[in-house]
Structures are given as C-alpha cells and as structure tokens.
Write a structure and sequence with these properties.
Blueprint lengths: L6 E7 L3 H12 L4 E5 L13 E3 L1 H7 L6 H4 L7 E11 L6 E10 L1 H13 L4 E4 L3 E5 L2 E4 L4 E9 L6 H6 L6 E10 L6 E4 L8 E7 L2 E7 L10 H9 L6 E10 L8 E2 L2 E3 L15 H21 L5 H28 L3 H7 L5 H9 L8
Parallel strand pairs: 1-2, 1-9, 2-6, 4-11, 9-16
Antiparallel strand pairs: 3-5, 4-5, 7-8, 8-9, 10-13, 10-14, 11-12, 12-13, 15-16
Helix pairs in contact: 1-4, 1-7, 7-8, 8-10
C-alpha cells in the first residue's frame, strides 16, 4: 500500500491487537492515524496460542475495565472454537479442572478484523514497511521514506524499535515454540507445569480441526536443555499432521515503569502488557490500546497530558497486574520445585489456591 501523505496526528508502529485498537480509538475520537507494519499481511505469521477469555469471563477477571463489549467485538469468523473447561496439569498428569469460558481464535482472521474495524474509523495502514528509527517526531523507514506525527506509538512487540531506542528497562522475555496440528481434540484446554516446561508452561489448545500445542520456558531453569528439546518432547506426545510451526517471545515480568516519554508511547507487549501469571496478552494489550487511543485523541484536541494514559491504566488494570506479578513469583516457587513436590501440590485442598495463582489473584482465599 502506498501512502503519499507524510504528516499525521499519530503514527503507530505495529498493527497487531494493541496497535489496531489504539488506532481505532484515537481515530474514533478525531485523530488522523497512520499504522506502519513490516508484515505484508497483518496477523501473519501466527505467533501465539490463540486463547482469550470470553467477554463475560473477562468481566470477572478485570472488573475495573469498563465497556468490555464495546472493546471486544470478535466476529464469529475469527472464532475457531469455544471452551468452558481448563485443566492445569502437573508432571503426574493428574490434573485439576476448572470452569473457564474461553474463545480459541483464528488469530490471523482476528487481527485482520481489528484492522477492518480501525479502517472504518479512517485509519490508514502502510504494510510491508519496516521502521528503522525514530528521531523526535519523525519516523524513518528502511526504504528511506519518512513520516511525521505529533504522537508516535510503539506497539511492535518485544523488539519494538521505539522501545529499543528510548527505554532502557529490561523485561523477562520467555521464548515459546508451538505447532498447529490436525486431529480430533475435545474442548478441554490444558496447561502443563513442572519439568515439562521449567519456569513456564506447555499448552494444548483445541481448535476446530486440530490444536495449537506449544511450550514456553525460562532458560535459566532449563539446565543444559534447549527450548527445542522441550518442545520436541512435548510435541511427540501428539499425533497428527503438523500444518504450521511457529515461535515467539512473551514479556513475562509485567508492565514497565513508564509508558510515556515526551510524545512517545508504548502499548501492548512493548510495554509489558501481559499478565505474568498466565501469559494472557491479547485482551490486556487491547485494554491498554483503548486507553492510549482515547488519551492521545484528547491530547491532540485539547492538550490533555499523555501521562493520563498511565493514570487510567493503573485505575483499570493496576491491581490486576500487581496481583499477577505476585502470583507469578509464588507460582514460580511452586512450579520450579521438583516434580514430586509439584505433584503433591495438585490436590483438592490446594485447588482454589492454584487457580488464584494462575489467574493472578494474589490473595489466598477461595474463589
């Protein structure tokens, strides 16, 4: 796509869920928005497990976030399958099952739907173009094109160029590998802990005609073994034709201290908007994107401080993120223990406690 105009109110680097949501709400509130993405087709290649909570589940998990149904408008064509069950599995395979309303996405279709939604608000997309660097209010691309904006947003994930240039804070990025496999699977989502995936977890997420199966680890707890070895071992337990192999990274240390520097903002994975206790990132990134887009539009219209973005985020998601960080530290102690100890923890007495640890509810009471 060719974009001849060079001056914009807002330029967003990265058109994933965070970027497209930021763009949608900024444009909806009067801003002229350009999204630049290095991919030819946004949403491809696939980079995640594709599981998100249903809107009703998310209302329970994030009660301070308003207007959930306006934010999440997932079309049926982007839904591969639905589930109401989730099992947490220790090395003994004697798992604990929980009620959980989940939506398994066709992620490329989902992300394209978010692009289409943003385009209805007059957002422009420039794809197949890689941002090289940002200088003040100027975005410089690898093809020597330049664009200028009052506000520049980095939503390019863990390797976002704006984050690399202007933020020195480090995040814990957990590498993941996954496959899409054909076959018959019931609607049960499984998360596996212990030596199967040290410091992280492995997953089996059923889809319409198969499953998304993956592994994420913390290398410092993996000894001499590589992610490839853990992944190959886990994948070998499932038969079927592999139709896709993917890899990525999840920022699992929670949000960074500040999302705003001058006229530069970060949103989504680039800001650490992933719940550390469970790796949930798509919906969390979209919550951040809506806040960012609304604040940016007010900033351009009437000079509202961009720092309002951080304040509103803390109001809506601060408690959930703090609890999730605490839960990750606690769960880390549990799930990095020897397999014998992990197996002993998975019992009916501790069942509510384990669920709270994984969903990011730090207190020890029952559900």
């Amino acid at each position: 796509m060719v974009v001849s105009r060079t001056d914009w109110d807002v330029i967003i680097i990265g058109g994933g869920p965070a970027g497209s949501t930021t763009a949608r709400y900024a444009a909806q509130n009067g801003a002229d928005v350009l999204v630049i993405d290095e991919r030819e087709v946004i949403g491809s290649p696939l980079q995640c497990g594709e599981l998100v909570p249903s809107n009703s589940e998310l209302k329970r998990l994030c009660p301070r976030v308003p207007d959930i149904d306006d934010l999440f408008r997932t079309p049926e064509r982007a839904v591969s399958r639905r589930t109401n069950r989730l099992r947490l599995v220790p090395p003994s395979r004697k798992g604990l099952e929980y009620a959980f309303e989940g939506v398994i996405l066709n992620r490329p279709v989902h992300d394209q739907a978010l692009v289409a939604l943003a385009e209805t608000c007059s957002v422009r997309y420039l794809t197949g173009t890689r941002v090289d660097r940002v200088e003040g209010s100027t975005v410089k691309c690898r093809d020597d094109s330049e664009f200028h904006a009052k506000v520049i947003v980095g939503s390019g994930g863990t390797s976002d160029p704006l984050r690399r240039q202007f933020w020195t804070e480090e995040s814990l990025n957990i590498p993941v590998k996954f496959i899409l496999i054909d076959g018959e699977f019931d609607d049960l989502v499984e998360l596996h802990f212990g030596s199967t995936a040290p410091g992280g977890y492995a997953w089996i997420i059923p889809k319409a005609n198969g499953a998304n199966i993956g592994v994420g680890i913390q290398r410092r707890f993996a000894g001499s073994r590589s992610l490839n070895e853990f992944a190959a071992e886990f994948f070998a337990g499932h038969r079927g034709e592999v139709t896709f192999r993917g890899a990525g990274a999840l920022p699992m240390s929670g949000t960074i201290k500040s999302f705003v520097k001058g006229n530069h903002l970060l949103v989504g994975d680039s800001a650490g908007m992933v719940l550390p206790s469970n790796g949930a990132g798509i919906t969390i990134a979209m919550i951040g994107g809506r806040i960012a887009g609304q604040v940016i539009a007010r900033h351009i219209r009437d000079g509202t401080s961009l720092k309002q973005y951080e304040s509103i985020w803390k109001q809506q998601m601060g408690r959930q993120m703090r609890n999730s960080k605490r839960s990750m530290r606690l769960a880390g102690l549990m799930f990095r223990s020897p397999d014998l100890i992990v197996n002993m923890m998975f019992n009916r007495l501790l069942k509510p406690f384990i669920w709270r640890a994984v969903t990011g509810r730090a207190r020890l009471g029952i559900l």
